[in-house]
Specification:
single chain, alpha/beta, Arc Repressor Mutant, subunit A, D-Maltodextrin-Binding Protein, domain 2, two-stranded antiparallel ribbon, 10 helices
Length: 298
Amino acid sequence: MRRRLPPLNSLRAFEVVSRHESFRAAAEELHVTAAAVSQQVKTLEDHLGRKLLRRRSGGYSLTPDALAGLKHLRDGFEHLSSAVATMSSGRQRVLTVSAVPSFAAEWLVPRLHRFRDQYPELDILLHASEELVDLEHSRVDLGIRYGSGSYPGLTSERLFVDEIFPVYSPRMLKGRGSLKKPGDLRGHPLIHTDWTPERGQWPGWAEWVRAAGVTGVDVAKGLRFSDGALVVQAAVRGQGIALGSKALVLEHLAAGRLVRPFKLSLTTDFAYYVVCERRRVDEPDLLAFRRWLMAEAR
């Protein structure tokens, strides 16, 4: 249940006084009298049952109770100002989303038109980066991260756990025998993801053929890429058989550009998570995009 708020004018008066530490200077900014500002601050103190200002030589200082809530109060007025500017300008709203390039290219971009259909008034600025963007000190509103799910200070929701399995282009096997069983991998070129995470395990071809109970497959040779999207693109172009990440190959499988010959898949220690600052979790634009992402992930 939302707590009853004090009058907005009293909050505004206190915020201005806190910056100037002077009723007279606050009154000049608000275009009212110093007595009116003093009365508004007293109204707020009466509502809270706390003293917010202490008189000192040359002005006023803030009490510990006042300092405890001041940042949130200023953030609140910033959000109000932004909301009023948006409503009055009629300009298109923009949500900035950060994601790893491979996921952005292979999973998110092919689906964004569906978000646009549902929310035509909200544009997406996609920031593709391998770096973990500091959401608090950047212009990025929301992030999609690949990891274990531990993101201190942020709210995180899991989109889906990742898994890998062999995929290849139909054109690669033209005039050659098809892959009917895992042992048929022998003699075919393999494509590898060359990535060693700081934590957790990323399984490769050695782990997959071991799980399949296959011997005689040379898992040491083949093209190697540090980026999952490059692995997928090499497979699409018929350059070998890749262990594809589910999130990155779904569109290609649906379009027939890639084929999945075997059911066996290996689950990784990683998943995709959508993250945002806790204080912004209920903002309408962020909430709309997160709900859309979760629906797409399902």
